[in-house]
Amino acid sequence: MTTTLPHPVTDARDGEDLSVWPASTRVAPHGDLTVGGVSLAELAERFGTPVYLLDEDEVRGRCRAYRQAFPDAEILYAAKAFLCRAMAHWVREEGLGLDVCSRGELELAVTTGFPPEQMVLHGNAKSPDELDAALRLGVGRIVIDSTAEIARIAALVPQGARQKVLLRIAPGIAAGAHPAIRTGTVDQKFGLASTDGSAQHAVARVLEQPRLELVGLHCHLGSQITSVKPYVQAVRRLVGMLSWARQVHGVTLPELDLGGGHGIAYRPGETALDIRALAVRAQAELHSACTTVDLPVPRLTLEPGRAVVGPAGVVLYRVLSVKRTGRHTFVAIDGGMSDNPRPALYGAQYAPRLIGRVGSAELQPVNIVGRHCEAGDVLASGALLPSDIRPGDLLGVPAAGAYQVSMASGYNLVGRPPVVAVTGGTARLLVRRESLADLHHRDIGL
Ligand code: LLP
């Protein structure tokens, strides 16, 4: 059983760099790869394409790595990265709680028996429906994102009950791979800043509500962060706020939630956030900052999403056409921005590989484009593929487990791809492909 973060695998036989593939990935005959002991070429035949697969052992190994690096902290898996019932089971069995940000995520997890008290509800715009469901089901904590929510949530708590809440702070730290996923700065839609007094005001307002129990502070700096530094800085600022709360209001808040955002490598050579370094540096800072102001050390919570599931996922596409203009080669696949909007939204880059055929030795840069009706539907520009790439070829894209299926859309009525789990040489369907019947079903007609 893996108890540490899986190590990058470089197959010495042909020197191929498989470092961004799941740790179980092996080179197989005829250009194939196996993941979790399952041939990717066979998997594509069996389930059709596009198909997403998740290496169950990789997900579990990553959960364990977090538990091992942070034995005293609470680790919540951020469901927004990807959620299905099996995923909820795996993270629960590995001892993680859940960060949910919608009624859909909350109720899906509850149907698997996930204990609501081990869930934290987020959202900058929680609907009355969502709050009702969260309170009815007994969600562990609700993260308050704005002052307006305070009285609204308090009013929904039944008489005699108390709901645990955290307050989301915007600590004024810019971190994350793209402006669209930087959430720690002030003057954006998330959280309350201490620089303009709104965080302090909110603390006072929450403490006035007898049906709310303020248990701590939260921040989420951004996503795809590869350096430990911003987290250390966030610890310092939030401990400053905890100390202020004790001085001014005489309350000692027992929890500090640092959110998620831990970056992964999408292409060989890219760096992932070093989880062990984060554990050492963030906890050292927490202890020293608390000692300085003579504050008991709060329990740390982390909310990783991408770093748990991203590297465990692979997507397989079939090449449908190859067009060579004078300057470029466009390799069109049977998926695209409807199953992976990340390149279009954040300029994300991937490293696809030919699967199930040994192509010509000569590699050429090609543009791998999606099937949707937009010139910007490009999965990878300048990806190196064998020069004889042709229709019918299979492409595998690693690091596909996070924010792809969960952000898949109904664009062009293509239907969302299935998700298959692989482990111990077997593949099983977790989420079936969205069929034409599914698409027609919601449309009432004239
Ligand atoms: N906690 C909170 C409050 C969050 O908003 C998020 C992500 C997480 C935890 C988990 O962050 P992670 O560890 O997965 O980075 N769609 C974008 C990422 C958006 C992240 C939104 N919030 C992408 O594909 O890069």
Summarize the SSE layout with pairings:
Elements: E1 10-11, E2 16-17, E3 26-27, E4 33-35, E5 38-39, H1 40-47, E6 51-55, H2 56-69, E7 74-78, H3 85-93, E8 97-100, H4 103-111, E9 119-121, H5 128-137, E10 141-144, H6 147-156, E11 163-170, E12 192-193, H7 198-207, E13 212-218, H8 229-249, E14 255-257, H9 275-292, E15 299-302, H10 306-309, E16 313-324, E17 329-333, H11 342-346, E18 353-355, E19 363-369, E20 378-386, E21 394-398, E22 419-423, E23 426-431, H12 436-441
Parallel strand pairs: 6-22, 7-8, 7-15, 8-9, 9-10, 10-11, 11-12, 11-13, 13-14, 14-15, 17-19
Antiparallel strand pairs: 1-2, 3-4, 4-5, 6-16, 16-17, 16-21, 18-21, 19-20, 22-23
Helix pairs in contact: 4-5, 8-9
Ligand LLP binds at residues 78, 80-81, 99, 122, 181, 220, 223-224, 259-262, 303-307, 342, 346, 403, 407.
What is shown here, in short?
The protein is 28% helix and 24% strand.
Task: Tell me what you see in this structure.
The chain has 446 residues and is an alpha/beta fold. It has 2 domains: 26-54 and 311-441, Beta Barrel (Lyase, Ornithine Decarboxylase, Chain A, domain 1), CATH 2.40.37.10; 56-309, TIM Barrel. Helices cover 28% and strands 24% of the residues. A hairpin with a 2-residue loop joins strand 22 and strand 23. Helix 4 (103-111) packs parallel to helix 5 (128-137) and helix 8 packs parallel to helix 9 (275-292). It is globular and about 70 Å long. Residues 78, 80-81, 99, 122, 181, 220, 223-224, 259-262, 303-307, 342, 346, 403, 407 line the site of ligand LLP.
